[in-house]
Amino acid sequence: MAGEAQADCLFCRIVKGEIPATIVRESETTVAFRDINPQAPTHVLVIPRAHYPDAASLAAAEPALAADVLREAGEVAAAEGLDGSGYRVVFNTGAGAGQTVFHAHAHVLGGRGLQWPPG
Ligand code: AMP
Ligand code: ZN
Fold first, then answer.
1. What sign has the CA pseudo-torsion 28, 105, 5, 10?
2. Measured distance CA(27)–CA(70) in Å, rounded
3. Digitized pLDDT (tens) for each residue of the chain, 119 residues in all
4. Which residues line ligand 1 (CB under 6 A)?
5. Which ligand is nearest to the CA of 16?
6. What is the rounded CA–CA span in Å between residue 68 and residue 36?
7. Among 53, 70, 52, which Cα is nearest to 108's?
8. Of the listed 51, 103, 105, 107, which one is catalytic?
9. Could you check whether the bond before residue 41 is cis, i.e. omega within 30 degrees of 0?
10. 5 in the Ramachandran plot: left (φ > 0), alpha (ψ -120 to 50) or beta?
11. Nearest atom (ligand 1) to Cα of 101
């Protein structure tokens, strides 16, 4: 069923506490934790507790949950002191765009200058 935990999904396992993560923020519907391979001084991932393979399928199935992820991304950025300097929220979608974990997640990146266009 849509949204159900997947036994072989890394981020479902982090939600369940089976794999450790440095959690910075939790809500009823989301978890935010530091990326294990940070690409900026602040690099936090915000995920829905429910499993959807990417942001578009999440938004199509549960728009309110997609909004929760976006709101939490903003809360993480504020808590990390990024409001003034600016930050980026990224949803890599598909292997060709660099997605490696197929459980929807927002990257919150900041704390350094960010180039545009991205690579
Ligand atoms: P993406 O490439 O957009 O799918 O992003 C997946 C992200 O998950 C990458 O930035 C990885 O560094 C990160 N990642 C992989 N394993 C872990 C882990 N165990 N804890 C935290 N972040 C992870
Ligand atoms: Zn999952």
1. negative
2. 12
3. 789 999 999 999 999 999 999 999 999 999 999 999 999 999 999 999 999 999 999 999 999 999 999 999 999 999 999 999 999 999 999 999 999 999 999 999 999 999 999 98
4. 10, 19, 21, 33, 35-37, 45, 92, 98-101
5. 2
6. 23
7. 70
8. 105
9. no
10. beta
11. 4
Residue boundaries of the structural domains of the chain: 10-110
Residue nearest to atom 13 of ligand 1 (CA): 35
The verdict on whether 105 is a catalytic residue reads yes
Q: What is the torsion angle, in degrees rounded to the nearest 10, for the CA atoms of residue 113, residue 109, residue 36 and residue 64?
A: -170
Does this model's pTM top 0.85? My answer is yes
Would you say domain 10-110 falls under CATH 3.30.428.10?
yes
pLDDT at 2: 87
**Which atom belonging to ligand 1 lies closest to the Cα atom of 34?**
21
